[in-house]
Specification:
- By secondary structure, the chain is mainly α.
- The protein is built from four helices and three strands; from the N terminus they run E-H-E-H-H-E-H.
- It has a three-stranded parallel β-sheet, with no helix packed on it.
- The C terminus is likely disordered.
Length: 134
């Protein structure tokens, strides 16, 4: 039996903790991250680690800070996880999903949570690099 049990991860651009990664690894053979780009080569690991440490010292102020730091951590691990994690994004196009992915995600959300309330619009595009003006 050579069937793979695969899933698409939509809740965040990357897992927020090692605990969630461990659970996902126990259940699935492959995990797809729609619209997320993580380079597999050309990374200066020492400088990336220094930048992660620098940002952590500034303190976490917003949820986007957690997403940024987690994404940077996964960049350092990508070469070890490429058989398990499938990042489908393209360089220079953050959050761009494959055709049909957003519609599928909306259908799944409605099956799980029911119809959305009036004037509610879901957004399934990961926003790793976007930052609101301050």
């Amino acid at each position: 039996m050579n069937e793979l049990f695969e899933a698409a991860y939509y809740s965040h651009p990357v897992p927020r903790s090692l605990a969630s990664l461990t659970l996902l690894a126990l259940v699935f053979d492959k995990l797809h991250f729609p619209g997320v780009y993580i380079p597999e080569s050309g990374i200066d690991e020492v400088e990336t680690r220094k930048e992660i440490d620098r940002i952590k010292k500034l303190g976490i102020r917003e949820a986007d800070d957690v997403v940024l730091l987690n994404s940077m951590e996964w960049v350092l691990q990508a070469k070890h996880l490429r058989d398990f994690f499938i990042f489908t994004g393209k360089y220079g196009h953050p959050g761009t999903l494959q055709p049909g992915a957003e519609e599928l995600a909306k259908e799944l959300e409605e099956l799980i949570y029911g119809p959305p309330p009036p004037n509610f619009f879901s957004d399934f595009s990961p926003r790793i690099l976007e930052r609101p003006a301050r």
